[in-house]
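User: I'm preparing a small set of examples for a lab meeting where we compare how different chains pack in three dimensions. I only have the primary sequence for this one, and I'd like the structure in token form so I can line it up with the others. Please keep the answer compact; I'll paste it straight into my notes.
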Amino acid sequence: MVARGPGAVGCAHCVQIGAEVSCQVCGRLVCTRCEADWATCSEPSGRVIRLGIGARLRDVDPGGQLGLVSTWHRSRKLLDLRRLRWYDAVVPGAWSMYERVDPRLTASGHLICARYRQDVFVGMYALELATREEIRISDVEPAGLALVSARNDRFVYVSSNQIVIVIEVSPRPAPTLRFDPLPRKMLHAVTLEAERGLLAAGSWSEVVLHRIRGTKLELLGRGATHGNVTFVAVAGGWLVAAARADGTTRVTAWALDAADEITDVAWQLEDTRVLKSAALSRDGRDFAFSFGTEVIVRDLATGTAMTFTEHTDEVILIRFAGDDHVLVTADADNRVVLRPRTATGYARALRPMDVPDPSLTLTE
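Assistant: Understood. Below is the structure token output for the 364-residue chain.
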């Protein structure tokens, strides 16, 4: 006997028995869990959402589930980027003019932020969003020009005395590691590739790559560029940095060998515009960047590139999330674009979606 009825067939996305609703993208029957998670659909269709007047997407957790949003009245909200629903809880604390680094979301559901009383630094804190438990993780003040990266629940930033601080956030904060990758130089950019323990840092006209060995750094190579390094990222077989001087932005990609050492310059781009935002995919395959409203995604291995023009205001955020399954871009005009990765690159076809008023709880 063959079962009949919607609930007796397998989900088209996850092959679980119990497909009851139609996917909004492909139209096939899926289970309720997959229907609520647009990224489970393999059809090459992305999403465009509007967050409301004065709202901006500030960060995305590495899994691509949570988005941190600032509002016009300086409060912080959380958005479920898979179900496209707001969470009912407002994140404690308002955006402060004294903050030296932007708050960051981790894969374990923590929000990392610096706390100030007026203009006096009181510590770096990890807020567990579900329980509201707050833990002080560092008493080292971040620098004003520091870039912050959070991957695999390791948090890295530059201190006011130009030391790189690395903190293991989950399951419980571990002792702080401190490194000096460019002694007696100003650090303008830093990033951490936690899987291989690679730490990249940039100063004036120089990028260095180290491997973390316990509490020591092992030098893997140096890359020369021109100007103030404003962005650096390392993943897969690539090290990418952007520097600006004399009215020119230079973006450089160096290839890494099997030992993760820097080899030759594989690609370079120069532009008179200022690089607004950039990100390197976790597997190192794609480099996404923006000089204004356009988003360019370059395949570093093949040299091919895709240009996306859906944003109408300056792009302020680019993130690869969910093991690179989704490219998230956001602009200053409250627009967010979510693109799944397909066999031919990130999706061009986009579907406008609304964020419903009914909210979710953090425990859902």
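A couple of notes for your slides: Residues 312 and 325 are 24 Å apart (CA to CA). The longest helix spans residues 32-35.

User: Perfect, thanks.
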